Amino acid sequence: MPIKHPNLKLSRLTDALPAWAGDIAVDDLRAVCRQVHDGGGRLVALWGSDVRQCGGGFKLHVVLINETGLVCLNVPLHAEHPNYPDISDIFPAANRMQRAAYDLLGICAQEGHDHRKWLRHGAWRSGSFPLRKDFDAAASRTVEADDYPFVQVEGQGVHEIPVGPVHAGIIEPGHFRFSIIGERVLRLEERLGYVHKGIEKRFERMSLQQGAKLAGRVSGDSTVAYAWAYAMAAEGIAKVTPSNNALWMRALLLERERVANHLGDLGYLGNDVALSFGFAQFWILKEQVLRNNATLFGHRYLMDAIVPGGVAVHLSIEGKHIIEQECDMLEQQVRILRGIYDEHAGVQDRFIGTGVVTPKLAAQLGLCGLAGRASAQAWDARVQFACAPYDKLDVQMATYRNGDVAARVIVRFDELFESLRLQREILARLVSDDAAPVLLERLPANGFGIGMVEGWRGEVMVAIHTDAQGGLARVHPHDPSWQNWPLLEHAIIDNIVPDFPLINKSFNLSYTGQDL
Amino acid sequence: MYQILKQIVKTGIKTETPPQADGSMRLVEQRLQQAILEAFGGALAIRQVDAGSCNGCELEIHAVNNAYYNIEGLGIKFVASPRHADLLLVTGPVSRHMELALKRTYDATPEPKLVVAIGDCACDGGIFGSGDADGSGENYATCGKVSNVIPVDVVVSGCPPAPTAILQGILTAISARK
Ligand code: SF4
User: Fold this and answer.
1) How are beta strands A310-311 and A306-307 bridged, if at all?
2) Whose CA, among A76, A152, A383, B40, lies 20 to 30 Å from A116?
3) For A324-350, what is the HEC assignment?
4) Rounded to a whole number, what is the distance in Å from the CA of A485 to chain B's nearest CA?
């Protein structure tokens, strides 16, 4: 049991993960958060739900993690005054999540100092809340101008550069406001939410299997991680365990997603420091992985390959050989390219010391995933909370202390090689069974489940609440970008503006994953 | 340097033959005169706008830049400003929060201009559901397909469409009506 509190009764959620859930009164929330924080724990996710139709009010859900596992605190809130105490002073990452929970559901963190909107721009009226069950979309339409009070930096010679939402490149949209003096960045403020497309509301009308497709499109570059986390949450509620073969296959797909993304990023990171050779080379390798995905699994990015209950793909003996050969080829090629990056003075000069996040700051603000590991935050769900089949794989975690672009590059290289090793191990144990997968079509009523998977960017979590008929009452997908975007604001300080694209790329965070 | 050159020689040339234009992808009659198409002179500048995608379509748009598809080899390049662009490549269902930015980008693109909508979401709202320009759609947060917001010449379906399909869409947009 990860935490103890006299008023908290926890029950185990799923066999796949060490995860528990329990109700706690609003007055006890801060004490529990404080306890987890002081024990070295972190905040994973925060969202709300509307349970007024079931005779309740609203609920706040807070997922915390410490070295023994995950705990989901369910906090009942009053129907008329759904308020709860601010926890962003304990977990700074809560700030944007609390603001988003207000925008979408109208539950309010009191005593907080930052009540600015976050996900709402001008698409619906203030005072109306899309995730309330009685939300009226037509009546909530508005053409009100979207004004947002950015923090102003004053002083002699300080000026602002606003960038976006449409960026100069093939990038997702978001707004960045730099306050600079000369070329030096004094402050960066992000404004996101531009690609908010009502994903959480969409889930409410979907069947379980349709929802799996949508979960796989919360952030396309992490489709495997989301689909797996969603399936894990559903399987936890239904109390079913997929076949061993399906679990091995999921891990294979997840590692392939990691490899493809790392290859792409390593190419772009070379490109951003004027080594276009790096882009050309890494993207040839990435393309080969994608083509193998298309041949073997029918989709270049592996969308819809994982479904609640199992997997929708098979791998033949020849298919295994193709992947083995691909792993050998990548191992050899990436070693050569790593050597070139390591010895290229121009590349190293731009990578080293750029965009630093110190381990102390990373710990304070809750940096996670790949970027966290580059700043000495040793969290990797495949290691600490190894869900099957990772419990049989002994994943080696890659961590560094420097927290600069160079460290984030090294972590990518190390994880790429580790993923190749893992793929080989998985292939050795994957037995092709031709048994048709038992797909999960419906879930039990009034259930709650969470799934968490270490995607290439960091931990991806999905929570599912079912209604009295077993339908999807509420699905909350959580991207690690929520935690990491605020750190980018710190990483750029005192760097020069032209280094922003490089620093940004070294994090490569998802916009759509947090805009929802 | 020696290592780099060695690697380049060893890698060789990966570029494949580009696809042919396909009239069935065309949404509207060719709006541009043959003469103007010739004026593009085979050199086409594209501005990509993510108007609300899940970023899956962006992955494939990145891929058309790789050595296999080598879009730059066809004289087509991605530019940083709509003012330099001949063609907008738009993805996503258009989120309401991007509606204005997309319109502004369109307005800032000089005539003659072309718009290619990439992906199922851009074609009809896809998995995120139809939204309608007047807000009567299934999703409170999106305007649905791109043509609900700006005029579209060519649509490329797929989730996400493969790089060859994207290339084909672009080539269809700039090819004259047969
Ligand atoms: S078409 Fe598919 S890949 Fe493209 S934005 Fe839509 S969901 Fe994502």
Assistant:
1) antiparallel
2) A76
3) HHHHHHHHHHHHHHHHHHHHCHHHHHH
4) 17
Residue A302, CB half-sphere, CA atoms under 13 Å: how many? 32
Report how far apart, in Å, the C-alpha atoms of B61 and of each of A55, A103, B157, B160 are.
Answer: 49, 32, 13, 9
Q: Are A130 and B141 in contact (CB under 8 A)?
A: yes
CA of B26 to the centre of ligand 1 (A): 20
A178 forms beta bridges with: A161, A188
Chain A residue numbers with beta carbons less than 8 Å from the beta carbon of B93 are 197
The shortest C-alpha distance from B137 to chain A (Å) reads 9
CA distance B86 to A14: 54
Q: Per-residue pLDDT averaged across A3-21, rounded?
A: 85
Which residue of B64, B95, B109, B118 to mutate against A (max A Cβ within 10 Å)? Answer: B95
- Paired residues of A21 in beta bridges: A11, A72
Q: How confident is the model at residue A282 (pLDDT cuts 50, 70, 90)?
A: very high
| Residues contacting A292, CB < 8 A, separation 6+ | A322, A323, A326
Token pair recorded at residue A32: 């529990």
**Contact by Cβ (8 Å): A484, A367:** yes
**Contact B137 CB / ligand 1 (< 6 Å):** no
Report whether pLDDT(A415) > 60: yes
Instruction: Specify the 3-state DSSP secondary structure of B4.
Output: helix
Residues of A in contact with B51 (CB under 8 A): 173
More confident residue, B22 or A413: A413
Beta-carbon separation of B101 and A287 below 8 A: no
Question: What atom of ligand 1 comes closest to residue B91's alpha carbon?
Answer: 5
Question: Interface pTM (ipTM) of the complex?
Answer: 0.91
Cβ contacts of A223 on chain B, cutoff 8 Å: 56
Q: Whose CA is nearest to atom 6 of ligand 1?
A: B121
Per residue of chain B (178 residues), what is the pLDDT tens digit? Answer: 788 888 888 888 888 877 777 777 776 655 544 545 565 666 889 999 999 999 999 999 999 999 888 888 888 888 888 888 999 999 989 999 999 999 999 999 998 889 999 999 999 999 998 877 777 778 889 999 999 999 999 999 999 999 999 998 988 888 754 3
CA–centroid distance for A250 within its chain: 18
A100 close to A119: Cβ distance less than 8 angstroms: yes
